[in-house]
Give the backbone structure.
Amino acid sequence: MSLITTHVLDTARGRPAAGIAVRLERHGEAGWTTIAERVTDADGRVPDLLPVGAPVEPGRYRLVFDTGRYLTTGGAKAFYPEITVAFEIHEAREHHHVPLLLSPYGYSTYRGS
């Protein structure tokens, strides 16, 4: 499993949010750089943002979720068409799981396990 993972749960529908494009970026001297792009699976998860065993350097990262397409495909209006969750990694060897709980007019996130 990647040292950085995520999943998206659709709290309005009570199920995983499959098919959401997710981009992982790292902040460096030149600004933000994309290091991975994936799509949530049928369980709303992205377990392979980075290859297994790939090192993670301490620093600032962010996940950018393309929620607009997912919400409008389901018939909802997308008040938040894109959600960016920035976080900082201090311990490079730890697993960092960043879930997103999504509804058409709100979202929340936390550090998962």
Notes: Residues 1-33+40-67+90-113 form a domain with the Immunoglobulin-like fold (CATH 2.60.40.180). The mean pLDDT is 94. The CA atoms of residues 58 and 89 lie 5 Å apart. The chain is about 5% helix and 45% strand.
